[in-house]
Amino acid sequence: MIIRVAVAAIINQDKEVLIAKRSKDQHQGNKWEFPGGKVEANETSQEALHREIMEELGIDIQSSSEMTSITHEYIEENPDNSKTVILDVFDVRDWRGEPKGVEGQPIRWVTVSEIDDYEFPIANVEIVNIIKHL
Ligand SMILES: Nc1nc2c([nH]c(=O)n2[C@H]2C[C@H](O)[C@@H](COP(=O)(O)OP(=O)(O)OP(=O)(O)O)O2)c(=O)[nH]1
Ligand SMILES: [Mg+2]
């Protein structure tokens, strides 16, 4: 199974990035993530980004730019559970509203020097690296 995911690196004026905690029942549960979700059929990644970020954080993205795209294969013990994710990552600096964990998920603004204190899915290594060098 291959799934495309739209992901936001939301960065504020203090250069902090917004992270959210995945629930224990989700794939890669209990890890921190950059908010986002699956791209649906008949939707571009950028459209999915705007939709998911409104659903998850209640904010309206005003503009976003492509940051990177990462393909990663998660291999599970049960091969039926293995999946390849394509993470289309966007740099987001401009939005309307105040982010909230709309789905009850903990959210945090973290600085580049704090980011290594959080555990992310392995596919996120390159994203974290890019953010550190912005
Ligand atoms: N949102 C997000 N997903 C990530 C990141 N890193 C990473 O490997 N993933 C993986 C985990 C999941 O397999 C997939 C994203 O799915 P998701 O669970 O966020 O999708 P969704 O918001 O549509 O939610 P759901 O209702 O299906 O749970 O991508 C990340 O930083 N953010
Ligand atoms: Mg999601």
What does this 3D model show about the protein?
The chain has 134 residues and is α+β, with helices and mostly antiparallel strands. The chain has a single domain (2-132), classed as Nucleoside Triphosphate Pyrophosphohydrolase. The protein is 16% helix and 39% strand. The chain has two helices and seven strands; from the N terminus they run ββββαβββα. The chain has helices at 45-57, 125-132, and strands at residues 2-10, 17-21, 32-33, 36-38, 60-74, 83-96, 107-110. The strands form two sheets. A four-stranded mixed β-sheet has the order 4-1-6-5, sandwiched between helices. The longest helix is centred in the middle third of the chain and has 13 residues, at 45-57. The termini are far apart. Bound molecules: 8-OXO-2'-deoxyguanosine-5'-triphosphate (8DG) and magnesium ion. Its cofactor is Mg(2+). This is 8-oxo-dGTP diphosphatase. Belongs to the Nudix hydrolase family. GO terms for molecular function: 8-oxo-7,8-dihydrodeoxyguanosine triphosphate pyrophosphatase activity; 8-oxo-7,8-dihydroguanosine triphosphate pyrophosphatase activity; 8-oxo-dGDP phosphatase activity; 8-oxo-GDP phosphatase activity; metal ion binding. Mg(2+) binds at residues 36, 56.
